[in-house]
Task: inverse folding
């Protein structure tokens, strides 16, 4: 987004596209932070341990008590265990797709198709929320409505809503001293003035075209460019993304690593007014293959879980504590999940390569494979009653058997917090057909707030 090319910025185009649709609802100013575990976390080795299962199932980790009487996690999560009264564990998620693409689409867009597809058929909940909130009228906050800090967009996206409802995407390592967010804020006031002059000059040069502009498109473009300039020139936008404004104690509490600083940035952004925030915990902190896909060919599953546990436990517990300490817990909901769990029964295969949490190629090592029939996620904030456990799995963790929750329930719960009645909202697809944003499921009562 260069100064010289301002007249052709993609952001005004995005803003322009957004204004072309009719409008439904009232802004509740609530927000959601979704922390995504790409590849799927092993529920048995974290939130739903099965100490009485056979050795071929239970894994090597010991159990620890949590702040909630009777609730135990594995030893990998001591920080989350210490604040378990500040969140609720849902142990009975289930969906029907065993592949990463289809599983992600089920969880994030409600697509019930079990086949892996190259691109999504339906928009994910983040894009839908962005679209619906955007239709409510002009936004006074200069920050984008939907921001992804290393977002989970590999298998998901806005689909028929169009790319204007994709996230404002922040990539890279927020822990790096060289980390910057392109297209946000201008530190040089001379550049700000220069940018304003260029915009005024463009408007003065298109006087002739305006006389033929029956639809008023050029005047609309002025409005979109004004919004884009606000993003570039309003000090609030630059400040919201500036982690150096946090004190050292807070940055240390989250962890001086990529994941910790991602989630700290997420908190800063929702506090500043971003309403939909996603952050994907992937990359080198996961181990050799940069995700949670702990097949034996990829990782030694137990070494991988140990390798990533400290950074994960610290970042998530800091985010949850911070939400409550800063008085954001009614407005902001936090959900931590992946697309599915991992097989309760341990498998063994030769490693395909050496690296963090993986033995040299050819070494036989343990793994857990894809498992959509039962998995866990955690929920905090959103005004919900915390310190709860929702649902249960069987004695081996193979199947959800009590209070089974589906992707439709998951999505309806998030929409409910955002003030969206998912049973009543339809959006036209590519063919102009009204399509429900959730065609099955309902909000999970324990996660719909105290009010």
Result:
């Amino acid at each position: 987004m260069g100064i010289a090319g301002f007249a052709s910025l993609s952001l005004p185009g995005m803003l322009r596209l957004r204004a072309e649709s009719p409008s439904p609802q009232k802004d509740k100013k609530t927000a959601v932070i979704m922390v995504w575990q790409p590849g799927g976390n092993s529920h048995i080795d974290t939130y739903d341990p099965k100490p009485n299962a056979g050795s071929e199932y239970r894994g090597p980790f010991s159990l620890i008590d949590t702040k909630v009487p009777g609730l135990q996690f594995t030893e990998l999560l001591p920080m989350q265990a210490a604040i378990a009264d500040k969140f609720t564990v849902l142990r009975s998620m289930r969906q029907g797709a065993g592949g990463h693409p289809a599983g992600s689409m089920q969880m994030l867009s409600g697509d019930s198709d079990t086949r892996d597809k190259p691109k999504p058929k339906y928009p994910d909940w983040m894009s839908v929320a962005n679209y619906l909130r955007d239709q409510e009228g002009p936004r006074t906050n200069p920050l984008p409505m939907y921001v992804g800090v290393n977002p989970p967009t590999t298998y998901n996206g806005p689909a028929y809503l169009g790319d204007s409802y994709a996230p404002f995407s922040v990539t890279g390592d927020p822990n790096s001293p060289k980390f910057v967010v392109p297209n946000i804020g201008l530190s040089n006031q001379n550049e700000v003035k220069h940018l304003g002059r260029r915009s005024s000059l463009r408007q003065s040069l298109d006087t002739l075209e305006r006389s033929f502009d029956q639809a008023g498109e050029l005047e609309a473009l002025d409005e979109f460019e004004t919004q884009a300039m606000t993003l570039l020139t309003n000090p609030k936008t630059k400040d919201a993304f500036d982690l150096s404004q946090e004190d050292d104690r807070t940055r240390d509490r989250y962890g001086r690593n990529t994941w910790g600083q991602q989630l700290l940035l997420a908190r800063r952004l929702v506090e500043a007014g971003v309403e939909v925030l996603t952050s994907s915990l992937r990359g080198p902190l996961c181990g050799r293959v940069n995700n949670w896909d702990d097949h034996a060919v990829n990782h030694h599953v137990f070494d991988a879980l140990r390798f990533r546990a400290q950074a994960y436990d610290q970042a998530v517990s800091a985010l949850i504590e911070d939400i409550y300490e800063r008085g954001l817990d009614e407005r902001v909901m936090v959900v931590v999940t992946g697309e599915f769990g991992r097989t309760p029964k341990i498998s063994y295969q030769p490693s395909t390569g050496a690296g963090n949490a993986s033995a040299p190629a050819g070494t036989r090592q343990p793994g857990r494979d894809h498992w959509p029939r039962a998995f866990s996620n955690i929920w905090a904030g959103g005004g919900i009653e915390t310190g709860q456990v929702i649902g249960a799995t069987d004695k081996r963790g193979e199947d959800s058997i009590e209070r089974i929750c589906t992707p439709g329930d998951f999505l309806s719960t998030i929409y409910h917090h955002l003030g969206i009645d998912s049973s009543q909202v339809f959006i036209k697809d590519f063919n102009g057909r009204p399509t429900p944003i959730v065609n099955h499921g309902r909000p999970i009562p324990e996660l719909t707030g105290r009010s």
